[in-house]
Amino acid sequence: MADPPGCCSTCATCLLCPYSCQWITAKEEKRKGLRTTKTDCSWFFMLFFVFLFTLVWLYFAIIILNDFHNFNEFIFKQRKLWLDWSLVLLIATAVLISYSSALLVLALCLQLCGQPLKLHWVHKMLLILTALVVAAAFIGLEIKWAEEWRSALISLQATGPFLHMGAVGGMTILAFPLASFVYRTCSTGLKVFLLLVYCAAMIALYLAPLGITSPCIMEENQLPPKPALVGHRGAPMLAPENTLMSLQKAVDCDVQVFETDVMVSADGVPFLMHDEELTRTTNVQAVFPERAALNSTAFNWTDLQQLDAGSWFLERRPFPTVQSLSAADRNQAAQQRIPSLGQALQAAKQSNISIMFDLRPENHSDYQNFVNVTLEAILQSGIPLQQVLWLPDGFREQVKQQAPGVQQVYGRKRLQNEKEPLLHVNLPYQDMSSEEIRQYRQDNISVNLYVVNKPWLFSVLWCSGVSSVTTNACQVLKEMKHPIWLLPSSTYLMMWIVVDCFSFLVILWAFGLLK
């Protein structure tokens, strides 16, 4: 078989050797009469499948980065080991996608050069291993983090139009090696099968925009106002979470609400703390090693005031932004202590921002007393009650009676037979569709969704009309003056038609050129 024009013997040899893991020149290959067998074709399809499988996982890995801090916290609770596992995820995924991509490119170039696809057994084993690793990752996602499937569906509202164009481009380029293979193979059945599959895939891609919906496909004058920002435990990328420094950094980011978590000490002082144990965000293991595993509520306020609530932030670096802190910020972070709810209310009052909180743990036997002392701290602080957003469901009616000015925020959707109309709801961003957000907005119900860290997700929710979002990345979302993209429907229709027509012409040219 003669080399096709433009494919020199040296190039063919350089492609053949890494694919087959044998140093064999193109001339030796022709002299031995090596050809691509049905088994070789099967392994090529296996390679193509593994590449697509790994590519889908790469997409998922990028999407779940929005929520990966929750995974890091989960691992710490289980193993008492802090590590930014997102780096492990991205490195492993990059290795897998790079390997399968390199093999696929080699195979396609070999096909264009008319060389046999003799995949070495080492590559075969590694491909099977890659498929198993990715399958295990998806299974783990389903078992431990099933809500991320809904995150992926939401992400398609941000990426759908561009994934469509990328898929059309990739399949269009695939026309060149496909045409080369069709013209070289002698099997009529295989030719017809491949052409039918390819044509079906292209028709599906050409018509895919009929099923693509996004709230950001709208006219500029239809764009809702930018959602307000709620600081998740303050500004945890810039300061230790649930500290007065974190509250102040959140104020600097123009947040309208400081979201936090409240617990009550053994002697009845409400204080800010998210975890039931103090090990993650304080030095309790050094100060009270024998009591480190106790619930946070087992410590009295005097004990809590002895704990360092900031040095862990500098040592563990829960977010990459910690590395860029100034010397002054580092010094301030190292001096942070656990604040009482009263101190946080005073700071919120002085900064003129609202404060929203959960009261933990909900299953505590003395929970009603927790509610009482928390209400007492609110009333004694002098903060305007409309600046307090109450999240706990326990003893809500009592709260309404004793502090009627406090805004009630519900962690559920409205019911059909609602006794009192809901004015504020606070839900995970996966729990509300764009249509529901629009309907709540029309009914004057304030919707806050959490936790939103990535600009793509913020853009989708902005276009949907959400009232506010809870975020770890207030310093990032603050700078967004516009959604990442906004397309009028007429513009998107034109892009769709142009991309599809151009792709069709390139495919015709590919088959005509290689005939």
Automatic annotation (TrEMBL):
Record keyword Cell membrane present? no
PROSITE patterns in alphabetical order? GP_PDE
Instruction: Quote the cellular component terms of the Gene Ontology held in the record.
Output: plasma membrane
Q: Which GO terms describe its biological process?
A: lipid metabolic process
Protein name per the record: GDPD2 inositolphosphodiesterase
The protein's organism comes out as Climacteris rufus
Domain GP-PDE stretches? 227-481
Similarity comment: family membership: Belongs to the glycerophosphoryl diester phosphodiesterase family.
Q: How does it sit in the membrane?
A: Multi-pass membrane protein
Q: Where in the cell is it found?
A: Membrane
Name any one GO molecular function: glycerophosphodiester phosphodiesterase activity
One Pfam annotation reads: GDPD
Identify the main location.
membrane
- The residue ranges crossing the membrane are 41-65, 85-109, 121-141, 161-183, 192-212, 493-514
Q: Does this entry carry the keyword Glycoprotein?
A: yes
Q: Which InterPro entries match?
A: GP_PDE_dom, PLC-like_Pdiesterase_TIM-brl
Alphabetical UniProt keywords:
Glycoprotein, Hydrolase, Membrane, Transmembrane, Transmembrane helix
Lineage of producing organism: Eukaryota, Metazoa, Chordata, Craniata, Vertebrata
